[in-house]
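tool=predict chain=A
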Amino acid sequence: MRIKMCVFVLAFAGFGPWARPGLAQDSSARVKAIQARLAELRKNFEKLPFSVQATMSEQRRLLGLEQLAGRVAVKGSVFVPTFPSSSDHASTSESPATVNGVVSVNDPRRDLAFSRFGGYSNTTSSTARCGNQVVVGYNRSASLLETFIAATGGISFSGVAVSSDGGERFRDLGFTPPGPNATDFAFGEPTVTCADASRFYYVQMYSTIGFNNQSPTSIALSASNDGGDTWSDPAPVVNKSQSHILDSPWSAIDPSNHKRIYVSYRDIDFSGTNSNCLPGDLRTAIEVVASKNGGKTFDAPIVAAEQCFSNLFEIVLASRVAVDSHGRVYVAWQDTQASPVISQDIAISSFVPGKTPSAPVIIDQVVQGGAEAFHTLNISDEFILQGGFQNYRGIDLAVDHSRGAHDGEVYVVWNDARNKSAPDEFDLFAGLYFFDDVMFSRSADGVAFSPTTQVNGDAQPKIGRGFDHFQPAIAVDRTGKVAVCWKDRRKDPENYRFERFCAGSTDTGSTWVESRIGGTLSSPSRGQDRVINPDMIGNYDALASDFLRQSDGFTGAFQVTTSGMHPDIKAHHFN
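tool=predict ok
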């Protein structure tokens, strides 16, 4: 009876107005293969210390998928609702501008209705623009269920939407291809880039059983030759052994050579055999791979930074990569140390093709925002923002390749709670709560950085609670103007709901003109989606300028929760 009830909810409450129940052909072999692969991935994940697990949002998502696989499988068959065809969907999903020029990216009609059985949300977006062509990639829970019940091929957690008019209207194209095999998992955290108005790239987390049964989770690239309308199956950009887990991907294209693509990521190496660490030690590293031929093949990894866990429980996370107009590559990340207290640094390195990366430069120390939440008595605590969600990756990087007066300037932005803390009146175990601001530093050479300054224009109150400003994104347009956007809570006295704020600077960040994007007031919807970590609302919302330098200004997609509990992706263009 319980299984039948789950199936009823899936078919009639979980898939919106197009859901019509049907029964797929026997797919027990496919489901068993998926379950076996997910169990293998879970075992690898469980080998790691909790303080490392807590930073791995993508791997934790696979644990939810494992539970989902067990629930959807019904005596060797899968219960299948009917979705609209991609052509019907594409022809009806274009949305005009709404309040303050904010436009819809995903089509809300494809959201899953509320169900404890499955997911519902759209989060963590990346935007790329070449001329008038704009592509947005994002995490999409509906993709997971659509591809899982398809009874063929792999599983996707990713979505994509396309605009051909500079971001005025978007077509939600649904899920990105996961690959032909049942054990191909494309599970999000996308970064989207473009070489021209036709050629776009979609880099994301990936898991597959392929050549030599490579690493449990890897990084893969999909390519589009028609402006984002169709995509190739994901192809891994780096292969490692079973004792490596790769996450936190980012990508960039060389402005001086559009066939040269760089992908950065974090390597969690639990082989215990790395020569730079003690035997049996856990190693984390920020690495970069490069392609010289438009993503067809990639060179061996370049190590930008690495840490050994035995060194005060130190790890690296949150890779970012950018390239200047002369082909120099910059890589930024966070160093996190968990003992004797949690501390973080923002660090950066750079290299030119064929050369070894420079020694890491520490830009500044970071005060972690939020309150400390203890899970066990060992080194396994984490910081969460009000609303109960993590914010580990509040960092971004941009390089000016405008070929103007400030060409080559390097900009780094992050959220930082150095300015305000206050006791938590209702949680004696949490102690102090630290309120984030958006911080900024710049450099003409990637070595000597300016003193850290604040981007958001409001000051934290001296008495009482403060306000969080978090998950900043940064970009530079063809005029050399710098823009930063972030989630901002200053308008909510309870420091709970957030809005989109942006700021622009025409003097390399010395001064900022700030704006509030109306109609974006949102609540942090979390803990409802069965296939997303209960402590996540998304890791970032990237910001883009026109890579081809044909137009001024900035375009960025971002998460908004304004319609019930469903987080949607919206976009906004500004100069």
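Residues 1-26, 74-93, 376-380 have pLDDT under 50 and may be disordered. The longest strand covers residues 257-269.
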